[in-house]
Description:
The chain contains three helices and five strands, in the order H-H-E-H-E-E-E-E. By secondary structure, the protein is of the alpha/beta class. The chain has one domain (16-126). Helix 3 links the parallel strand 1 and strand 2 (82-87). Helix 2 (34-45) crosses helix 3. It is elongated, with a radius of gyration of 20 Å.
Amino acid sequence: MKTPDRPRAGETREDPKYRHYPEARFGGFADVDQVTVFYTRVRALIEPSFTVRDIGCGRGKQADDPVPTRRRLKTLNDVCDRLIGIDLDPAASENPCIDEFRMMRPHEVWAWRCLDRSRPQRPCARAC
């Protein structure tokens, strides 16, 4: 049985991401990076006048992404009028990527006015 080649002194093993997705060398993300695909779609749908709700916003981990393009795509407060972060964790109130934080409590029904003001107010989500 052949053992895998080990790097010699002074050499480094190539990151497997670059071996399997060589395009990741240019921009830091691969063509199959679904995070990039998803946030590109989200940003295309947001209009500057929108108020966006980030349900499960977290502490703002997206600001720590080492890939600048992906980091910019995941930070939505530059493409909408207002970004409201909603989370169960009080630590999310420190999220630098949101404009406003609202604490969600377990078993609480949230009633949000839809972006389309012509619709009546009704419960839109429930945390279980």
